[in-house]
Amino acid sequence: QGQFLESGGGLVQPGGSLRLSCTGSGFAFSTYPMAWYRQGPESRCELIASIPSAGTSAHGEGPGKGRFTASRDNAKNTAYLQMNDLKPEDTAVYYCRFAHAFLMQTTCGQGSEYDHWGQGIQVTVSS
């Protein structure tokens, strides 16, 4: 399993922005496609954005469409999630994931030898 250093979460007011970072080690970072997921209270694990191994950025999908942008810098082994215009319903634990196949999971964070998950970053949107 890979190891991760994550940062950027916290408490933000509605309409605000946050940038999450996820730095990976212990696996071939640049060869893995990556994705950001989130899981809110009593919610299923949701895909937010995904980037191929050689990609640089991608717009958000689903709940992140139009507001979130994912990016990665393989030279720094770091992935980012820029979140703008945050809403209370964005409150969740956000996860970075590196895998060659993104099989659906009910609960985020269930990694394996070739499916690397970060520990999760708490984001709370509240006034």
Spans of at least 5 consecutive residues with low confidence: none
Shape, principal axes of CA atoms: globular
Could you give the distance between the termini?
A: 37 Å
Structural class, judged by helices and strands? mainly beta
Q: How many H/I helices? A: 0
Instruction: Report Rg.
Output: 13 Å
Q: Which percent bin holds the helix content?
A: under 10%
**Main sheet specs:** 6 strands, mixed
Overview of the structural elements:
By secondary structure, the protein is mostly beta strands. The chain is built from no helices and eleven strands. It has strands spanning 3-7, 10-12, 18-25, 34-39, 46-51, 57-59, 68-73, 78-83, 92-99, 115-117, 121-125. Strands 2, 4, 5, 9, 10 and 11 form a six-stranded mixed sheet that branches. It has a five-stranded antiparallel sheet with strand order 1-3-8-7-6, with no helix packed on it. The radius of gyration is 13 Å and the shape is globular. The chain starts with a strand and ends with a strand. The model has no long low-confidence stretch (mean pLDDT 94).
List keywords for this structure.
11 strands, globular, 127 residues, mainly beta
In short:
By secondary structure, the chain is mostly beta strands. 0% of the residues lie in helices and 46% in strands.
What secondary-structure arrangement, pairings included, does this model have?
Blueprint: E1 3-7, E2 10-12, E3 18-25, E4 34-39, E5 46-51, E6 57-59, E7 68-73, E8 78-83, E9 92-99, E10 115-117, E11 121-125
Parallel strand pairs: 2-11
Antiparallel strand pairs: 1-3, 3-8, 4-5, 4-9, 6-7, 7-8, 9-10, 9-11
